[in-house]
Each structure stands twice: as C-alpha cells, then as structure tokens.
Amino acid sequence: MDKNILIIGAGPTGLGAAYRLAELGYRNWQIVEQHDYVGGLAASFRDANGFTWDVGGHILFSGYDYFTRLVDRLLANQYLEHVRNSWIWLLDRFVPYPFQNNLRYLPKEALWECLNGLWETNQKHAGAPGNFREWILRTFGHGIASHFMLPYNEKNWATPLELMSHEWIAHRVSVIDFQRVLRNVILEQDDINWGPNRTFKFPRTGGTGAIYQAFLPAVRDHLALNRKLTRVEPEQRRIMYADGSSEHYDILINTTPLTELVAHIHPANPQLIQQAEQLRSTGTLIVGIGLAQPCPSPKCWIYFPGEESPFYRVTYFSNYSPENVPGPDHYSLMCETSYSASRSVNRSSIIEETIRGLIATGLLSEADRSHIVSTFLIDAEYAYPVPTLERNQILASIVQFLARKQIYTRGRFGLWLYEIGNMDHSVMQGVELVDHLLRGEREKVVADFPLLG
Ligand SMILES: Cc1cc2nc3c(=O)[nH]c(=O)nc-3n(C[C@H](O)[C@H](O)[C@H](O)COP(=O)(O)OP(=O)(O)OC[C@H]3O[C@@H](n4cnc5c(N)ncnc54)[C@H](O)[C@@H]3O)c2cc1C
User: Fold this and answer.
1) Are 385 and 436 in contact (CB under 8 A)?
2) How far is ligand 1, taken at its centre, from the CA of residue 12, in Å?
3) Is the separation of the CB atoms in 354 and 337 below 8 Å?
4) Confidence class of residue 152 from pLDDT cuts 50, 70 and 90?
5) Tens of pLDDT along 201-225?
6) How many domains does one find in the chain?
7) What's the CA-to-centroid distance between 365 and ligand 1, angstroms?
8) Ligand 1 residue neighbourhood (C-beta within 6 Å)
9) 30-39: per-residue pLDDT in tens?
10) Of 269, 285, 365, 427, which one has the fewest beta carbons inside 10 Å?
11) Domain that holds residue 290
C-alpha cells in the first residue's frame, strides 16, 4: 500500500500512530499539530521560576508490553518508580485511598453510617442500576455514598450522575464486599493495595511531557507544528488549515475532539452535528503552586470531596521528581478543578480560590502564603470525556459514518471513551490502528467497544 496517511494531532495517540508508521518503514505519511509543541494533554510546561507542571496529575502505569517497552526505550530508563501514597480528605482528617477499604479512619458516627449502609445494600436491590448514581447507592449504600462517592464524583465529573452510565467503572473504582470492610475495621488493618496504579513511574526530568518529546527523533521529518485543521471535505479527501492552505489525503487519522471534527466536516451534516452535540465533556483548571520550602509531606495525591475547596485533587508534584522544582528546598502542589456546562468556574479568581482551599483543608497555612514563589494556570478545555447513558449509541453512529469515508478517529477525545483514555491506551490505539491499516491486524484496545462496525 502506498496511500497518503495524514494524522491530525500530535498527542499520545497521534504520536503512537506516527511512531509505528516510522517503525514499520512506511514513508507516505504526515502528522500535523495545532500547537508549537507535541504531547497534547500529556505535555509538560516549565514556568519562568523553574517549576515543571503537567496538565493535571499524570502517572505512568500500563498492562501493555509494547507501551512499557517503548517508554523504557524512549526515556532510556531515566525515570523514577513510586509506590502510590494517596488519600482522601474529609471530616477534618485523611483517610487512605481507596476510601471504602479504609473506613476505620472515620469518626464513629460516620463509620456506623457507612457500615450500616453497606450491610443494607447486601439485603436488597435486585436488577441492574439505571445510572451511575443508582450504581453508587446500590453498591456502597447510603453512608459511603453520601460521605464520599456522591460528592466526590459530582465534583470530579461536574455532571449530574443520573446522566452517566456505570459501565466504565471496572478498572477505576474498587468494589469490595461487606466482610472485607468489616475485617479491616475490626482488625484495624489498612487496605491500600487496590488498583492497577499501585506502583507507577515518572520521568526524572521534564515531567510527563518528556515521554512525548522523546518521540521527536522518530517523527520529526513528517511533523508540521502550528497547523490547525479547520475543514474536512470527505468527498474530495481534502483538509484545510487555519492559515488557508489545504492538503489531500487517502486515509485520515483523527485524534482531535470528535465533536470538533464533526463540526469541521464540509458540507455540513446536520444529523451528525446534532448527535455529536449530545456528547458531554468536562474541562479542568490546573493551578500550580510553587513554594520555597522543604516539602512537608510524602503524599502523592489527595482527593477532596468537600465544598471547602474548588479542587477535587491535589498532587504533591515535587514528590514525583526533584527535577520538577528549581531546588532542594522547594516543593510544588498541582490542584485540579473541574468545570462543565453544569458547573461553572471563575478563571480570573481560581488561583486565589485554590490557595484559600489549600488553607481551608490544612495543606497550607496563612503564613505559607509568603513562601509561594510561583503560580501557574493551565486551562484544559477538553479534560474528561463523560460516559453518559446514550454515549455508545452516538459514538457507534458517528465512528462508523467516518470510517466509511476513510476517516479513522481514535484517542481520548477522538473516540470519547474514558475507559480507554489513559496515555497507554491512547498510544496503543495509534499503534494498533496502523497495524490494522498496514497489516490487517485486529485492534485490541478498542475491541471491547462495539463501535467500529
Ligand atoms: C487531568 C488529567 C489527568 C490525567 N492523568 C493521567 C494519568 O495519570 N495517566 C495516564 O496514563 N493518563 C492520564 N491522563 C490522560 C492522558 O492525558 C491522555 O490519555 C492523552 O493525553 C490522550 O492523548 P490523545 O492523543 O488521544 O489526545 P490529546 O492529548 O488531547 O491530543 C490531541 C492533540 O490534537 C491536537 N489538536 C486538537 N485540535 C486540533 C486541530 N484542529 N488541528 C490540529 N491539531 C489539533 C491537540 O493540540 C493535541 O495535541 C490524564 C488526563 C487529564 C486531562
């Protein structure tokens, strides 16, 4: 095959596809990116004061051998390995993550509410839950739901939970039984090992974005930066860019948000646009706070269900690598606040609101304000693709329409699937799509989703 393959977007998915094309010795391809840097949501930024920031707390873990070997090679083993040390802040105390496994840290009244609720859920509720909210109540009972699961998820997803499905939770939420919870409480045991990210890696230098910088030697000759796609003409197999230039393709690999791609299609397809408009996403404001002080805590990250802070998560980012801060007596906090059509934020005051939240939750004191030497704000407009109830049906229709036009859409927002929206899934989606196009191989990462027709 010598078709012209054009990749839109140089985030992990686009770079995964590009790397594989280069690895297989294919020549007729190009990758374009709207920004002047690669990495997309997984890029990192160094601020004027020498602090490095990610677009929210990124950690590296994977069950895919190809991805693990690729990252080891790209980073030349220059990464640090960590054991997760994560917590939930509520009721004026820290509870180890996962919350539901470590109820013994709660005050007695709240502990009773959680145990009683969990016991009651064992006794009733036949039939499948209709949405994520129902799933939480039926799985964990009223106590765990009201103290943590409902407020945290409402804050993180910035979406009414009744609009969400519960099918995405498999690898993301620890589901445990009453006996195990009771044993942990009575035997006073911590139970913190759950989950695929129990241990993780982090690049020694340059933040998470260092991984994607390391793709450059393999793809540079085919990469065009500062090129923003503004129109796709599927019948002519032509795309146009913001600078007025245009280009032909035989096969288009899209990794930009699906909603935007559909809006770029010319002539406009009102039915497709109307379907795409029903897909929901959240944005995240990431506030970096750099301090000239030794780090007061060995924690990795903390979840915040309460309304005393705007953020849902804070990462002690300097604990991931000492190179993330300008010197040894410095540390950094990275704070993430969600927003959406149903949860607004004020961009102009979010840094001050974040500092107030850090003080209200005890991570900083009023006196620590004088040690803040850097603040940094990133606005990720597309951060979480929301698994809504009707999502799969909408996606199947759009994705199959595009594939008939030789447009293959993959990646976190290209395919809009949170379940397979991490960095490893994204890189592998790109790699496997190329293996499919060039070698007829079956794509495995997307195989669980009957979207592709
Ligand atoms: C807050 C947060 C925390 C996360 N934490 C983790 C984690 O701990 N571990 C993990 O593995 N993953 C994590 N992720 C997910 C990770 O960031 C994604 O898996 C990954 O970035 C998705 O890659 P992608 O290439 O599909 O999309 P993106 O990274 O969004 O890349 C898409 C690219 O397309 C470009 N583009 C968009 N529109 C156009 C256009 N019109 N023309 C040209 N180019 C365009 C964009 O600029 C971008 O570079 C996290 C994500 C967020 C938001």
Assistant:
1) no
2) 7
3) yes
4) very high
5) 999 999 999 999 999 999 999 999 9
6) 3
7) 34
8) 8-14, 32-35, 40-42, 55-59, 228-229, 255-256, 284, 336, 380, 383, 411-414, 421-424, 426
9) 999 999 999 9
10) 365
11) 44-65+76-84+197-202+281-385
